[in-house]
From TrEMBL:
Organism for this UniProt entry: Lactarius akahatsu
Transmembrane portions of the chain: none
Domain of life from the UniProt record: Eukaryota
Keywords of this entry: Mitochondrion, Ribonucleoprotein, Ribosomal protein, Transit peptide
Protein name per its UniProtKB record: Large ribosomal subunit protein bL32m
Subcellular location: Mitochondrion
Length: 101
């Protein structure tokens, strides 16, 4: 009698033996942060209010160069002195070992 029950319901055996692997849904494939979008356009005034505190700040670390006296940032090379040294160095390398005045 047990052999009759298996032959009478072959579809029950096929369902368990032919299982399809789980396919994730579209919501599982896309990360949630890609679905986050604003509901309305941000107005110009709200955008300006949000960016009002992002303005330029005044530099507090401006000092005088001890070599030439021009303004420079503290702990940085003086651009004026650097350009004069660079010009002199290029003259030395281009014309040989002569030191320019």
């Amino acid at each position: 009698m047990s052999s009759l029950s298996f032959t009478a319901f072959p579809s029950a055996l096929l369902r368990t033996s032919w299982s399809i692997p789980f396919l994730p849904s579209l919501r599982d494939l896309i990360p949630p942060f890609l679905l986050a979008v604003p509901k309305k356009k941000v107005s110009h005034s709200r955008k300006a209010m949000r960016s009002a505190n992002k303005g330029l700040k005044d530099k507090q670390n401006v000092v005088h160069c001890p070599g030439c006296g021009s303004a420079k940032l503290a702990h940085h090379l003086c651009p004026h002195c650097y350009s004069s040294i660079n010009r002199a160095w290029k003259k030395v390398t281009n014309y040989g070992s002569e030191v320019p005045p």
